Amino acid sequence: MFQAIVIRKTESGGHDAQVTALDEAQLPEGDVTVRVEYSTVNYKDGLAITGKAPVIRKYPMVPGIDLAGTVEASGDPEWKPGDHVVLNGWGVGEGHFGGLAQRARVKGGWLVPLPAPLTTRRAMAIGTAGYTAMLCVLALEKHGVRPGDGEVLVTGASGGVGSVAVALLSKLGHRVIASTGRAAESDYLRSLGAAEVIDRAQLSAPGKPLGKERWAGAVDSVGSHTLANVCATTRYRGAVAACGLAQGMDLPASVAPFILRAVTLYGIDSVMAPRPLRLEAWSRLARDLDPAKLEAMTQEITLAGAIPAAADILAGKVRGRLVVNVAR
Hints:
- By secondary structure, the chain is an alpha/beta fold.
- 30% of the residues lie in helices and 27% in strands.
- It contains 10 helices and 15 strands.
- It has helices at 43-50, 120-143, 160-171, 186-192, 201-204, 224-232, 256-260, 275-288, 291-296, 306-314; strands at residues 2-9, 15-22, 32-40, 66-74, 84-88, 103-106, 111-113, 151-154, 176-180, 196-199, 215-220, 234-242, 264-267, 298-302, 321-325.
- The strands form 3 sheets. Strands 3, 4, 5, 6, 7, 14 and 15 form a 7-stranded mixed sheet that branches. It has a 6-stranded parallel sheet with strand order 10-9-8-11-12-13, with helices on both faces.
- α2 (120-143) packs across α8 (275-288).
- It is globular and about 60 Å long.
């Protein structure tokens, strides 16, 4: 038996999440069984646990789009008992039991090896949020955005993706401008490496098709009017990596930035990203993310604590990253 958060539909059609004891026989099909050591609470997990959006595709479901732990049994020749592994995405926590549990059974092809010198806890301090931030950074780099080209903007900067993006980009030598709706987090963002902190209100209202050119590149986790305004103020031949929808799924923009300034908008998907890209992202995270800055943005919580944390993350009350110690 092991402990897990299980989400069920109630008799009245409601949505209920509770820590529950499960038997390994209840785990779904898969060729690798992992003893989970740490998981996380991401924005998508918040939606799943609270039921605020139809993230879950079948019930009952164990949420958690991330996990890190040790292989206990494997029918996949790539993995053997004792291997330390990380999993992000692939529909776990949505259509397949996820990481907010002490055990998981998954497909071996979904796993990547834990890169040295990361521990399983540190890997989950990074989690999908940090892995997504690294995918954004890689997209900007492959576009040709380099330190010295100009300022790089990070929106939603005090959240999980934003915090890691600020830390990564500043360490790589960029002048990072952090946009946040929480002025009280300014010192925190500067401690991660932000050169300047601006109020999200500068970007969140309906704007003009084109604005004054400012950003050489940008990482946006907000969407809607914010993303439209980011594109409208990106410099000629700059690039924007979009990975979130905290403000909304809409994009009330014009084609002007794309056809008059040759701005490129990159869509960043972390769920189904191919394995070579995942390996590159995790290798770079192990190398380029300052462990002290990562620890400064991380809070550890219990498995049961992940349930109230889900509402907090949707309400914008969570700074940085939440690591779930599933043994607690």
